[in-house]
Design goal:
about 350 residues; 5-stranded mixed barrel; alpha+beta; 12 helices; 4-stranded antiparallel sheet
Length: about 350
């Protein structure tokens, strides 16, 4: 046997998914760093504090999202608007030793109740901004104070309930945990494919021709004993065409191949043309499609000639006539047929 080709396909499938492991692992590391650097955990599970606790410590600590119960809230008469829509109503209440401004969502305060005896809410301690300073300026006029005097007496933050109800925040967490789940599942699948190559997609696609495990074993045996034709990443054995390239792995019985053709790609940078690569396209029974990109012309020509000789029913070269012949054999893909049936049913 040729040692170089012993379990060659399985080793290349495992190597391919080993390389793909790097991306989801790095992505999970980035998510972990974001969780540690940003207050994501605080947003998801705000601290529960009482109205007697000083919010200053939480604000300075960098944990602005909290849950609390406030009492004796009085409406200021002012509202917060965004894009012409009222998003909150400003109230004031005692919190610890301070008088704090609280922005409540419209539903929470029933569109601006004059007084609220007690309410349990979750929200965010928001730094002083233009809206907050404008509110204090208006309140100073109502109280016949100077604006500087009131601003100096008030905390440099206010408590905002709508800040916890932002649609963007929900979207961020869906994206965060959804992508985390996708990365974890990818890692698990890649590890399974590395350990059991016959369950990897390149092999499972062969289920339309028989047992993927058995087909892989037969192809491995033929490749290890006597490969008929070999290029850098494409091989032909007695019964199989095999691809083991950096772009993916593929395997198909030669007797199932219907059509082979190539096309060229001109690689250029600005006005400079520096290379031409060729892609081999293979169409097989049961809607199996294989693409072998970035090969040299002589390798692809040799593969096409050998396949055409091994199976005289294979159509060679791209043409409309060949496309129609293959379409007549394959028909429409199953998912397209189901979609057409569904559309006609709806109509």
């Amino acid at each position: 046997m040729t040692d170089n080709y012993e379990h060659y396909i399985s080793r290349n499938i495992a190597a391919y998914y080993k390389k793909r492991l790097v991306s989801p692992i790095i992505y999970l590391a980035i998510l972990l760093i974001l969780w540690l650097v940003l207050p994501l955990g605080n947003i998801l599970a705000p601290h529960t504090v009482s109205a007697t606790d000083s919010p200053d410590a939480l604000f300075e600590k960098g944990d602005p999202y909290i849950k609390t119960t406030l009492v004796d809230l009085t409406f200021t008469g002012y509202t917060a608007k965004q894009y012409g829509k009222t998003i909150g109503y400003y109230y004031y209440t005692d919190w610890g030793d301070d008088c704090v401004i609280v922005l409540l969502a419209p539903n929470t305060c029933e569109q601006g109740l004059p007084n609220i005896e007690s309410i349990s809410i979750r929200g965010k301690l928001v730094s002083s901004n233009d809206s907050y300073r404008a509110l204090l300026t208006e309140l100073s006029g109502d109280l016949e104070w100077t604006s500087d005097g009131l601003i100096s007496q008030m905390p440099q933050y206010y408590f905002s309930e709508p800040a916890c109800h932002m649609t963007g925040t929900v979207f961020v967490f869906i994206l965060y945990f959804g992508s985390m789940l996708y990365a974890v599942i990818s890692i698990i699948l890649y590890l399974v494919y590395m350990r059991f190559p016959f369950v990897a997609p390149p092999c499972q696609n062969l289920v339309v021709y028989g047992s993927p495990k058995q087909i892989l074993e037969e192809a491995e045996e033929e490749l290890a004993t006597l490969p008929q034709l070999a290029t850098e990443d494409m091989f032909i054995t007695e019964h199989y065409f095999i691809v083991t390239s950096p772009y993916g792995n593929s395997l198909v019985p030669i007797k199932e191949i219907l059509w082979i053709y190539k096309h060229s790609t001109l690689h250029k940078f600005l006005w400079y043309h520096f290379s031409i690569s060729y892609t081999l396209h293979i169409v097989a029974n049961k809607h199996m499609y294989i693409h072998c990109p970035k090969n040299i012309k002589s390798d692809i020509d040799g593969i096409m000639d050998y396949l055409a000789e091994a199976n005289h029913n294979i159509l060679t070269g791209f043409s409309e006539e060949n496309r129609l012949k293959v379409e007549a054999v394959l028909g429409k893909p199953f998912h397209v047929e189901k979609l057409n049936a569904l559309l006609h049913k709806k109509i």
